Predict the structure.
Amino acid sequence: MDFERGRELGFPIFCPVGGDGVYTEAAGKYAGQFVKDADPEITADLEDNGALLASGTVQHSYGHCWRCDTGILQIVTDQWFITITDVKDELLANIEDSEWHPEWARDNRFRDFVEEAPDWNVSRQRYWGIPLPIWTPEDRDDDEERIVISDREELADRVDQDIDPDAVDLHKDTVDDLTITEDGTTYTRVPDVFDVWLDSSVASWGTLDYPADDSQFDDLWPADLILEAHDQTRGWFWSQLGMGTAALGESPYQEVLMHGHALMPDGRAMSKSKDILIDPHEAIDRHGRDVMRLFLLSNNPQGEDMRFDWDGMQTMENHLRTLWNVFRFPLPYMRLDEFDPQETALEDVDSDLELIDEWVLARLQSTKAEMTEHFEEFRQDKAIDALIEFIVEDVSRFYVQAVRERMWAEEDSGSKTAAYATIYRVLRESVALLAPYAPFISEEIYGTLTGNDGFDTVHMEDWPAVDEYWEDTQLETDVALLRAIEEAGANARQQAGRKLRWPVPRVVVAADDQRVVDAVSRHTELLEDRLNARAVELVSPEERWGELQYSAEADMSELGPAFGDRAGRVMNALNEARIDEPRLAAIEDAVGDVLEDGEEITDEMVSFVTQTPDSVAGTAFSTDGDDRGVAYVDASLTDDIESEGYAREVIRRVQEMRKDLELDVEERIALEFAIDDDRIADLVDEREDVIREEVRADERRPVEDGHRKEWDVEDVSMEIAIEPLAAAEASD
């Protein structure tokens, strides 16, 4: 600041400090003192001379050497500059020739910097580096007699020493010894070296050996892309643009991708020297390379810093674990049924595909399209988010749940084969999409899926293209509505205390939107299956579900002034009343016995509350932030409902016991179960065949030496025992 102000006022440049931080003879009485050591004496002299306004200390940030952490003194020295200001207009024009991601980094930050950029100081006083190719007379400083060497051949031709132009090492320690003698004058090289950024700034054509060799220049220059963090706005982005414009008149790059930095969880910048960092080896040891790659890529939007987060790493690991489980899920069934994807392609089973298969294939196409769009815009964070949502939400939590029974079924069927072909296509293309981001798990899954029929590596696969045949935006929209209804139904079940595995007699969908009516009408069977409901009843937006009633919740602060000592009686009447429509006239009629002539109920006195029938609970559903209706779940029990519900409970526990024994999918068992409650036992016995089929039990009989456990199911005690039939036969 002092230097710039002095220049504005036209003061001569005066620097009585040497490179060692010690005052020179030009400093008079202070000569020989380190500048900081001389501060007290200088302050005292200023005070004695009456020139001191104030003195004291101020705490502020101060530049330090990043290697030895000692303070840095700023002094004025003679330096070499490139007059960037002479090409400022060309620089600003060339900025527009490159596409930046994000755009604001170019249009705001970078443009502002270039507009204010001073001439470029390209010289440094270091003990090693690329030497400035400038020689001056050794006995005088004469600007007119400077010699600038252009290349190795000219250097070898003009220096006094005998050197090989192809072998000479063009660094300071070698070139400093070379002299040039012409017309009786000996020239020595100036001692400065180039700023390393100057070397970096010519990388785009220097790596092509241009201009010495122009064979590749037209094909490879300018560069397609430059990728760095936002600190390079003043670094590589700027130095390359400056030199490209000054030397060749063009921007040396076509696109710029600017990312941010990874910060500590508390927002501090990482620093190895200060031991403020997350050790990447620790992150890899705890979660794996793929997890770290995905976490960093998915949490780093263009140009913005990101905070490292161990919880976020765990979440990403959970997502990859979900993919792994989806991958493992169909394998034992495929092997058992000898499904060969090379012999049975998806197109071969088109006629056997069910609605849910067509939907997941449509979602796959949309995911590919969305990822491709984000990929081309360098938004890897959004591309990864789209793929994870597809794998976790669509495939794992919806599709796999919907096709479990089809794959578990023992008999061969076109439907089962279609499910195999569908999930194979989904997995193979999903790992191809994932491979650039998480190469290790992608390679493992790909190799297992394709065996000897695929490429040697997933990275040889083409980027999956959208297949228009499987696109179906209407089906995607419909299923999005069905899933919203399903989620609302699950919440309503929770309110009613009914588990998801228990069927319910009906679910009533009261629609606020005609699109809901259309979607439910088209896919009633799928919705019934997803809701585990015997029936779905649909109420259109123009109608009202006739079984609903309304009550009026009274506000005593409003009733008191209006009805005085009768307010309590009016409140009780309001709370007990039930009406068919939420209208003031209806509630007044319902409590008319407690109202006197001229009295009325106002909006301020009551708020209407929906009252569902006994055993019914309702939850609103929405999509894209818009309310679409309410799903009402009837959780009433019948003998038939209880029979299936308790049978499902038995099946679930037998499956857990199979896992305890680590039984393969195809292994058969003997089954024994006993239920303390005779009524429940009779209900479960009605579904013995279903239970045996689901758990692969050939027979129900007493089990002597098998796996036995006691269970409490809905307050009903059960004892279940299973035994692998192979083991039982061996013991016999």
About this structure: Residues 168 and 174 are 8 Å apart (CA to CA). The two ends are 98 Å apart (CA to CA).
